[in-house]
Automatic annotation (TrEMBL):
Annotated keywords: Membrane, Transmembrane, Transmembrane helix
Protein known as: Uncharacterized protein
Presence of keyword Membrane: yes
Residues annotated as transmembrane: 12-30, 37-54, 66-87, 99-121
Source species, domain of life: Bacteria
Length: 137
């Protein structure tokens, strides 16, 4: 009899769609087609991320931790916008808000991306260990 196949055998990474997206990215870059480049880059990020989200083993707390990571990641555009104004001397003393406001449209997208990337690429939590057995008194 043959050994039973492990569940990881049928979860091979989606190499074909990723290689196709890479080919589209190279052709769009050569043709200088900006929307094609952005679509191919988004595909290269989303395909392995969604594959991992759909095939991973979910444990208690993954959803809460993923949403927390999305909340943290949603602040990245605001911080980057504030950092762009630091080159001006008047913005070093008082924060110039136009840089922060420039990042506001990207806040929801950064939150979704942070959540997806956490769910897709975080290491699984360690298996719970049994507590040591204490000798009877």
């Amino acid at each position: 009899m043959s050994a039973p196949e492990s569940p990881q055998d049928d979860r091979t990474p989606p190499w074909t769609p990723m290689l196709l997206a890479l080919g589209v990215l190279l052709m769009a870059t050569a043709a200088r087609h900006e929307r094609g480049v952005l679509a191919a880059l988004a595909t290269l990020v989303l395909v392995p991320s969604l594959w991992r989200v759909l095939t991973r083993r979910w444990v208690r707390g993954d959803v809460v931790r993923g949403l927390g990571m999305g909340f943290i990641a949603s602040h990245a555009p605001l911080l980057l916008g504030a950092c762009t104004t630091l080159g001006r001397p008047e913005c070093r003393i008082h924060l110039c808000m136009e840089g922060v406001f420039a990042g506001v449209p990207y806040v929801p997208w950064a939150g979704v991306l942070g959540t997806l990337l956490y769910w897709a690429w975080s290491a699984p939590p360690p298996e719970p260990r049994d507590p040591p057995m204490l000798p009877p008194d």
